[in-house]
Amino acid sequence: MPAKHVMPSTVRRSSRKAQRTWAKTYDSALQQYGEGSRAARVANASLKHAFQKVGDRWEPKRTTGPSDEQAATGGVGRRPRPSAGGVDANASKKDLLDVAKRLDIHGRHRMAKPELIEAIQKANRRETRTHQPSAQRRRR
Q1: % of the chain exceeding 90 in pLDDT
Q2: Under a CB-based contact definition with an 8 Å cutoff, are residues 83 and 68 in contact?
Q3: Which pLDDT does position 97 carry in this prediction?
Q4: Which tops the pLDDT comparison, 49 or 80?
Q5: Domain chopping of the chain, boundaries
Q6: What is the pLDDT of residue 134?
Q7: Rounded CA gap, 40 and 100, in Å?
Q8: pLDDT of 114-125, one tens digit each?
Q9: How far, in Å, CA of 117 to CA of 96, rounded?
Q10: Where are the alpha helices (DSSP H) in 3-131?
Q11: C-alpha span between 27 and 1 (Å, rounded)
């Protein structure tokens, strides 16, 4: 299975279901679109439909569906909208506060929903960086 070789580390640290979702979609997209980054983008979009990024891994969402405006349009249109980077921007503020609590985001109760989304994105990036092998971090 070619997907195992290119699977992002955050997906590898996630549940078997998340890995299977990403891999099946990637392999299918690889057959349809060929080699290139498009297959990975399609696999990531599929993963974001049922999972949200929490820290350095993907966890199931309460309800399936698009995670943000960009995912809702399917990437169609002249100007892509900004992505929430794996954060379920369509989740309720209560759900976002729960995720922020697990990520130990300070001041979360005073934040508006867009600020919470941004703070979660930042915490996710930080967690992902700390779990990368040191040689991989140096290349960036």
Answers
A1: 47
A2: yes
A3: 95
A4: 49
A5: 3-139
A6: 60
A7: 27
A8: 999 999 999 999
A9: 7
A10: 3-6, 9-12, 16-33, 37-50, 69-73, 93-102, 113-130
A11: 8
